[in-house]
Amino acid sequence: MTENKQNSESKIISPSGRTRGAYALQIILWMITIVGIVVVLGFVNKSQKSRVFNPDEVRINIDYETENRFVDEDGVKSYVVNLRDTSKKYFGDYDVLSIEQKINGNSAIKDAQVYKTIDGKIVVNVKQRRPIARIFTKGESYYLDEYGSLMPLSNKYTSRVVVVNGRLNEPFASRYKFNYNQLPDSLTSKTMLDDLFILTNYIDKSSFWKAQIEQIYVNKDLDLELIPKVGNHKIVLGGVDNLDNKFARLMVFYKKGLPKTGWNEYSEINLKFKNQIVCTKIYN
Questions:
Q1: Cβ atoms 102, 36 nearer than 8 A
Q2: Residue 227, strand partner residues
């Protein structure tokens, strides 16, 4: 009985021993593989650094998710290579982090990612900033982007966005470093730009109102007025409070009121008063 028990235990231990040996062998093989990969990558990296670089091996990918064309491939490529410099350049001479910093310094670019491929190419992926309004203030003009940041105009492209003008005195220099959500304590007092961002952002998120509203005017009372693309009327919005309610009332009037009277019946549609729409007729 004891002998059978000992034989049984030895049968259990023996397979366990073989398993440990196989596991150790597997670890050794993995280590050899990793060392081999490191050695090969080392040779590849050394070979790449000494490789003569051809400017044609730069690949530019610009995310044209909108119609905006503030930057093009040639412009982005100029940050990577100087085509006027005909001296021999090596792949290792190009620092992707430095190139990224230069490209991201372009005021029209939201983000740039640069990397090298194992076959000797430099790839640049670029995303543009997206303006949602063009501001006309005293003596200057600039864009307001989707994050509430100010964006200078471009000499290459003019974006077709809602135009904002009127009684505005908002210098570009005072706000261009900050977006709506990142204002420091020294700028906590609200300005008209904050209200304009709230309104233009609201319009931008609606395909209907984005297609309908072409201009925002700040009148002498600092009320916001909307100028639509269709009709001869203006829409007095007042402030940016209760935008959902105001635009809901306007939508009902557009659907049920204007089709009966005609789009050119009124000179003004006023939404300032709670739960009311006050219209001013055009009298010839």
A1: no
A2: 215
Could you tell me if 172 and 152 are in contact, meaning their C-beta atoms sit under 8 angstroms apart?
Answer: yes
**Closest by CA position to 234, among listed 256, 255, 212:** 212
DSSP 3-state of 69: coil
- The fold for domain 131-281 equals Rossmann fold (3.40.50)
CA nearest to 204, candidates 128, 133, 129: 133
For CA atoms 213, 218, 219, 223, give the dihedral sign. Answer: positive
pLDDT at 258: 80
Cα distances (angstroms) measured from residue 106 to each of 147, 154, 268 = 17, 11, 42
**Is residue 253 a contact partner of residue 236, using CB atoms and an 8 Å limit?**
no
How far, rounded to the nearest angstrom, does the alpha carbon of residue 81 sit from its chain's CA centroid?
A: 26
pLDDT band with cut points at 50, 70 and 90 for residue 283: confident
The reported pTM is 0.76
* Residue where the block lists tokens 């009372």: 221
Q: How far apart are CA 224 and CA 238, in angstroms?
A: 5
Between CA 237 and CA 242 the distance in angstroms is 10
Domain residue ranges in the chain: 1-49, 55-128, 131-281
CB atoms within 10 A of CB 247: 20
User: pLDDT exceeding 70 applies to what percent of the chain?
Assistant: 81
- Residue that wins the pLDDT comparison between 176 and 192: 192
* Domain 55-128 top-level CATH class: alpha beta
pLDDT in tens, 138-171: 889 999 999 999 999 999 899 999 999 999 988 8
